[in-house]
Structure formats: structure tokens, C-alpha cells
Amino acid sequence: MTDVEDVKYEIQNIVLSVTYKDTELDLEKLAGLLEGARYDPEVFPGIAYQSFEPTASFLIFASGKMNCVGAKSMEDAKNAIEKLTKKLKDSDIDIDDNPEVKVQNMVASFDFGRDFDLEMIARNFRNTEYEPEVFPGLVFRLDDPKAVILLFVSGKGVCAGAKSEEDIQRAAEKITEVIE
């Protein structure tokens, strides 16, 4: 857990797109090279592969594009991508050493260290949705940073849609400011 003033947060998941430019991958061959890889083109057009140390999961497509999910830090995500890239290159697959990597989404859990009156917040802020009979959390949409925060009565929350750890920190600060 990391502190932003009085708000604790922890990154739970990072989703990245990875692109090896001008690359066509032979998924049949690749599935045979990656231990534990799952490839069933009748069911899904890509390879599902999980790496350990650091933990991350990949969906690998013939186009040279991949999705990387499950890392809990940018450092772990980058290390998992570097490790997979090295494994592919060591298997004589012709790919670029430095793929284009782009963060698509970061998800973090928050602990604001206090309870929230979700009814009051919903009445006072137009960029919220609160239907307790459908879902116990309040949905708070921020424009800057562009993120969605789920707030719960307990003072806990979830941030989704952030593109960086700085976005997560700014979202925590903004929610704290607005609700004070």
C-alpha cells in the first residue's frame, strides 16, 4: 500500500498493449515453444500464456500484437515483457527488441481511512451514479485524470481507467478534495 496524504492505495492490475511492428507470428510454432501456452484457434484466435517471476498473463496474436495483464507494477510488467521478448528471440523468432508498449488501464484499490455518506455525495455531484438497490457502490467519474472511482460506505474504493500511477494519485487527491 502506498500513501497519498491520508489515502492508501495499491495497484491491483495493469493492462498494456504490446506491439512488435512489422511482425507476423506463427502461432502454431509459438505455442509449441512457450511452456504452458494454450492455443485453440477454433475457440480463440490467439495464444494465452502466463509468465511467472514476475507474474503476468499474455494474449498473443499473429499480427505481432499482445495484451499483457495481471502485473501489479510497471516494473513487473516491463520485466515480464522483456523476458517474453528474450524467450521469443532465443527461439529464433524475428522480432524487435523494443516493442511499443502502451498502458491501456490501471486498476487500484483505495482506502480513504474514513466512512462515506454516498447519498450526500450523489446529491451534490453530477458526475456520479448511485443506485444502492442495484450496486452498493457509488460510481464517480473524473475528467482529469480520466478515471472512474467506485466508492463504498466503508471508505474503500476502486480506481479504474487510469493510465499511470500519477493518475491514480491525482484521482485519490481529487476525490479527497471534492468530498472534504
From TrEMBL:
Belongs to the TBP family. Pfam families: TBP. Keywords: DNA-binding, Repeat, Transcription, Transcription regulation. General factor that plays a role in the activation of archaeal genes transcribed by RNA polymerase. Binds specifically to the TATA box promoter element which lies close to the position of transcription initiation. The keyword Transcription regulation applies. One of its GO terms (biological process) is DNA-templated transcription initiation. InterPro entries: TBP, TBP_dom_sf. It comes from the Archaea. The keyword Protease does not apply. One of its GO terms (molecular function) is DNA binding. Transmembrane segments: none annotated. Sequence repeats lie at residues 103-179. It comes from candidate division MSBL1 archaeon SCGC-AAA382A13. This is TATA-box-binding protein.
